[in-house]
Amino acid sequence: xxxxxxxxxxxxxxxxxxxxxxxxxxEVRIGHxxxxxxxxxxxxxxxxxxxxxxxxxxxxxxxxxxxxECRACGGTTTLELPIxxxxxxxxxxxxxxxxxxxLVASIERAKKVN
Length: 114
What we know:
Blueprint: H1 2-18, E1 21-31, H2 38-49, E2 58-64, E3 67-70, E4 76-78, E5 94-98, E6 102-112
Parallel strand pairs: 1-2
Antiparallel strand pairs: 1-6, 3-4, 3-5
Helix pairs in contact: 1-2
């Protein structure tokens, strides 16, 4: 379950950037090609934050679709299946524009606890 290791990296990043503030919500952007199982990531979050300064915070997952741009015709295609072909002209000279993201997009903090 690589989601546990990925989630540990998220937790570490959030703790580092929380700067002593209580965290209420964390949003991550995960691209289609990252092959992350959302339920496993959420389970890992609950497991890893229990008993830490992140306890009670929520993890929100923003799924980023894989989008291609065709170099031949300029059309964009949102992939349903992992077939790298332009839906407009059928061309295969395409460039991946999104779908490989894995980042912490936002950290919603409460006021600093003294």
